[in-house]
Amino acid sequence: MKMASAAAAPLLLLLALAATAGAVTFDAINAVPDSAGGQRFDRDYGGVEYAKQVLSEASSFIWTTFNQSNPEDRVGYDSVTLTVVDNLQPGAVAVTIGNAIALRAQSVAETNGDAAAVKEGVNGVLYHEATHVWQWGLQDYTAHWGIFEGIADYVRLKAGLPAGNWGQPGEGKQWDEGYAVTAYFLDYCESLKSGFVAELNGKLKDGYNDEYFVQILGKTADQLWSDYKAKYSQG
Ligand SMILES: [Zn+2]
Fold first, then answer.
1. Which residues pair with 25 in a beta bridge?
2. Which entry of 37, 124, 136, 205 is 20 to 30 Å from 101 by CA?
3. From which residue to which does the signal peptide run (predicted)?
4. How confident is the model over 213-225, as pLDDT tens digits?
């Protein structure tokens, strides 16, 4: 029995490691709890515990949107961390680098409305930023930032968390101008073929290529944009 239990210890350790493989840890830190935004983050938003829960829910939503039920298909981070800070550049609500999301406390402080408005606004930002954590292809972000910002706002749109200042579907000058304009265009592409955005994201692993639209939908992005604009000009 003694030998058996001695042998069982490393086996149990192995089983414990296997159980955590693929699991992702979600963390949140309020680095400026005494600032107006930090106080509102704790009081109106729900603080770090609620933020961790939202990051977890957002990540699951993103993996579903990207059709990544198999963890091996996902970007391989084992943690996501949100930090509420007061030193982001003015105008930036949040910045994501790798698996680290920084949220500007002043943006929380300046949110119009009650606690529900703060929750909805911050949650929309977190769904957008968490998409940056999990989307493929960011090696091409500088050259093709519009597609990546469009996918991040597409996720926000599908989660039912569009920002109040977004325009309407059909607006915009070109498909890749990013954010809500591209998000609504991607939603149109998704309406042509369910799973379009998931397939596009998967292809982006190899970097951006104009051909992806042709490969998935049989038309160039510019052709699709013309179709999209024509649809909305007809009212
Ligand atoms: Zn973004």
1. 79
2. 205
3. 1-23
4. 999 999 999 999 9
Tokens of 30: 């309020």
Q: Which domains does the chain have, with CATH numbers?
A: 23-134 (1.10.390.10), 140-235 (no CATH)
Q: Are 232 and 221 in contact (CB under 8 A)?
A: no
**CA 34 to centroid of ligand 1, rounded, Å:** 27
Q: Is the distance from CB of 182 to CB of 149 less than 8 angstroms?
A: yes
| Alpha-carbon span 53 to 180, nearest angstrom | 25
Residue 13's pLDDT is what?
55
pLDDT of 90 reads 78
Torsion angle, alpha carbons of 132, 67, 76, 157, to 10: 20
Q: CA 155, CA 130: separation in Å to the nearest integer?
A: 10
Confidence of residue 89 (pLDDT cuts 50, 70, 90): confident
Q: What separation in Å is there between the alpha carbon of 93 and the centre of ligand 1? A: 10
- CA separation for the pair 199, 208 (Å, rounded): 13
* Torsion over CA: 155, 160, 163, 166 (sign): positive
214's tokens: 């042709």
How high is the pLDDT of residue 1? 46
28 forms beta bridges with: 82
- CA of 113 from ligand 1 middle (Å) equals 24
Q: How far is the CA of 1 from the centre of ligand 1 (A)?
A: 58
What's the pLDDT at 235? 56
Residue 48 CA to residue 55 CA, distance in Å, equals 10
- The tens digit of pLDDT for each residue in 123-176 reads 999 999 999 999 999 999 999 999 999 999 999 999 999 998 999 999 999 999
